[in-house]
Amino acid sequence: MLKISEVYEKQCRSVTEKPDGTEQIGYGTQYFSRECLINENYIVAVHPHEFRSELTEQKMAESFPEGTKFSTLVVDGNSFRKSEILVIGSFEKFRKILENKSA
Predict the structure, then answer these.
(1) Cα-Cα-Cα-Cα dihedral of 95, 97, 98, 101, to 10°?
(2) What phi, psi does 18 have (nearest 5°)?
(3) SS3 category, 89
């Protein structure tokens, strides 16, 4: 089993006060991470994560420390919610880990 930090998106509630004193409730998304274990036999591919939009990249920069590297794990199997999992860690880190497991 391989321990990873999965990145997930969560909708958060925010309350702002208007000039007249009333509260306005809004919702926005934030990124968080959670520890999880994955069987490395299910990993089909690993590649460096490429942000699809500047807005996503900006939200990730606000949620994680500067210089945090992200990778995408492509997994095989019917027991996963989706085939691509965004994780914290550089491509080189996962390359070394998976090379050592297969040796």
Answers:
(1) 150
(2) -80, 165
(3) coil
Q: CA-CA distance, 101 to 103, in Å (whole number)?
A: 6
Write out the chain's pLDDT in tens, 103 residues: 899 999 999 998 888 888 888 898 988 888 999 999 998 888 889 999 988 888 888 888 888 999 899 999 998 877 667 788 999 999 999 999 888 876 5
Alpha helices per DSSP H over the chain: 54-63, 91-102
Closest CA to 63 of 94, 92, 96, 28: 28
Distance from C-alpha of 4 to C-alpha of 55, rounded to nearest angstrom: 25
8 A C-beta contact, residue 6 and residue 21: no
